Amino acid sequence: MKQTHIPQHPARPLRYAGLLVATGLLTGLLGPSAAAQTPVQQYGQLKVSGGSILDKNNQPMSLAGNSLFWSNDGWGGEKYYTANTVSWLKNSWNAKLVRVAMGVEDSGGYISNPAGNRRRVKTVVDAALAQGLYVIIDWHSHHAENYQSQAISFFQDMARTYGNTPNVMYEVYNEPLQVSWSSTIKPYAEAVAGAIRAIDPDNLIIVGTPTWSQDVDVAASNPITRYPNIAYTLHFYAATHKQSLRDKAQTALNRGVALFVTEYGTTEASGNGYVDAASTQEWMTFLRQNNISHANWALNDKAESASALKPGTSSTAAWSDNFLTTSGSLVKSYIQSWNGTVTSGGGGTPPPTTGSTTKVEAESYHAMSGVQTQATTDTGGGLNVGWLDPGDWLAYTVDIPAAGTYLIQYRVASLNGGGRISLEQNAGVTLRGTINVPKTGGWQVWTTISHTVTLPAGRQDIAIGVPAGGYNINWWSFSKVSAAARTVLPTTVAVAGDAALAVYPNPAQNQLTVTVPATAGEVHLTVFDGLGRAVIRRAVAGQAADQQVELATEALVAGSYLVRLAGPGLVQTQRFVKQ
């Protein structure tokens, strides 16, 4: 959401105006059935079965929420360990989960101040219970095996206090370093889990994995079997960790264990660097498709890129989106619209039959930026999406039954016209088509517009981008076009809105040479195939002068590809053909 806004629709309600999200708006976003229940009422007692986390109805589900910063004295994050914070996360972010990151061995942590840190933990846990949220109690350590007796004592206390509620999860080891799973982490985790299970037989226990909770495949090859309801920790930072870590996660899932992303960032692993929105979207798609819950690091105002709040944000303010960082705004859009009951492996529309029309309600997005919903007077009632400004977007997961040409229809209303819709994939890298929105004469005067685009087959994310705003959308639909009626969009050499990237030769055979312009920071080259999959990735150090970078394309199958260069303040794209 944007920070302060004078709407294009004067007769309709103002956006936030610096206040917390109103309960009525939250109800509009979630729908009446979801808003009537707290997350814990909706999902109930969680359990692990068949490599998935299931709700009370034995359905796969996932939660989205926030991790607090270290609880340590004087580290800055402890001021947000309040009931006010938890209430804000629930009511403004639609968070279903909060993680309490209790520092252990470092200065100001549990070892040096057990009473103070325990008090902070209990303040947040009590608030989460009052709000009906799930809460992770995290032993936030890199060396937990050295503090096993203290961990056992602490988690026994937590289990006695909260073990009779379904809200609580126990994260017994945050991020082990590069230590052995079998001889160090697993024995420690089994000892702590045993102490918990003697008191609390069923709430989830989450266990860290080697190499900063990345080697989930290693843990999955030798899982804990002595106790039930065990999940394994996966951590990622989107600007650093890409497909190779998802491959490790997929290996772990294939081996039948449940994963829980108790911490992730949109930035580099250091917590700084640039916010990688494209990589974050790839990760969100993976988590959604595999029903993996996640908590974002961190709800704090530290002057680093991963913080959700700007430096100096008061711990007692009535926060608005004015206080959010770039990362905070991006993450909020995912958490706010996360649908936790995805039983089909990713959410979105059911698979249509070839030739049928599948209608997608505009408000059923799984992620968005900058939009709101309101009641519509269009046929069928319900909600429409509005307050669309340039740069806004809405993302959906759909099942396309077969590759080919599709008729895309949009149900729109616009007082003055002049708007534009773009159908996009891969965080805007792949542009499928654009269409202008006409003047209809009112914000609830509806018409249907359409264009044709080419789409690959399969489950995929499709986004509606807003190059120019000033309209509402009630629904959109897609249906496969017969060969006789087909209208193929012309091939463009670059994605609209991006500068053209210089590449040669084009067509390419064994290699493609890319001209990387002078830049002070690191840039990233990514090659996407026709299905939108990243098939080549390359990080390039910035130089004071232009440089030529060669990409090996010999292994690519013949076809059309798109290469994208992205770096600080720089995005360039170009299509090329592999012969």
Explain what this protein looks like in three dimensions:
With 579 residues, this protein is α/β, with parallel strands linked by helices. The protein folds into three domains: 60-336, TIM Barrel (Alpha-Beta Barrel); 357-485, Jelly Rolls (Sandwich), CATH 2.60.120.260; 499-578, Immunoglobulin-like. The protein contains twelve helices and 29 strands. It has an eight-stranded parallel beta barrel with strand order 3-4-5-6-7-8-9-10, surrounded by six helices. It has a five-stranded antiparallel β-sheet with strand order 12-15-20-17-18. Strands 22-29-28-25-26 form a five-stranded mixed β-sheet, with no helix packed on it. Strand 25 and strand 26 form a beta hairpin. The radius of gyration is 24 Å and the shape is globular. Residues 1-35, 341-355 and 483-498 have low confidence and may be disordered. This is Carbohydrate-binding protein. Keywords: Glycosidase, Hydrolase, Signal. It holds the Pfam family Por_Secre_tail.
